[in-house]
Amino acid sequence: MLREEVMEKAGGGIWTWINYRGGAGQLAWVLHRVTGIGVFLFLLIHIVDTSLIGWGPEVYNKVVKLYHLPLFRIGEVILAGMVLYHALNGIRIIIIDLWEEATRFHRQLFYAAAIVFIIIFFPTAYLMLRPLL
After folding, report:
1. How many domains are there within the chain?
2. What are the 10-residue block averages of pLDDT along the chain, 133 residues in total?
3. Which of 11, 20, 48, 113 has the most CB atoms less than 10 A away?
4. At what angle do helices 106-129 and 23-51 cross, to 10 degrees?
5. pTM for the predicted model, two decimal places
6. CB neighbour list of residue 77: distance below 8 Å, 6 or more residues apart
7. CATH code: domain of residue 45
8. Residue 100 CA, distance from chain mean position
9. Structural domain of residue 81, as residue ranges?
10. Residue 17 lies inside a defined structural domain of this protein
């Protein structure tokens, strides 16, 4: 089925864009972009909260005290997951870019990165969240 036929059947709009190709390649692409934006937003927030020291230690300490709340611990776990996925998928992309034969195995490389992510992330998330449990 041609791309145009698929778009016509889906009725256009955002759903067509989301379902354009599907599969491991598109999932890897979307997750890489989302995690990259998430890490970037964290860095912006971190720069802003660090710059608050310019308004005095009282203001800075009030903001930093917020980071001891359980919600922020969960946010740290999410951030760790985003950084880990982004790094592992980045390695997968580098392998595909530098080794021409790897393009035949992009799906297997995605699943390998996902398995490594699971092996590293879940024990780490448990250790990070253990004080809350």
Report:
1. 1
2. 56 57 78 94 92 88 88 93 96 89 84 96 95 85
3. 113
4. 40
5. 0.77
6. 125, 128, 129
7. 1.20.1300.10
8. 26
9. 22-132
10. no
Structure tokens of 34? 């989302």
DSSP annotation of 12 reads S
Residue 113 resides in a domain = yes
Domain-located, residue 14? no
| Contact between residue 35 and residue 79 where contact means Cβ atoms under 8 Å apart | no
Q: pLDDT value at position 3?
A: 55
In a domain, 7, yes or no: no
Question: Are residues 96 and 106 in contact, defined by beta-carbon separation less than 8 angstroms?
Answer: yes
* Res 133: pLDDT: 82
For residue 114, what are its two tokens?
């996902």
Measure CA of the first residue to CA of the last residue in the chain; give whole Å: 51
d(CA 15, CA 45): 32
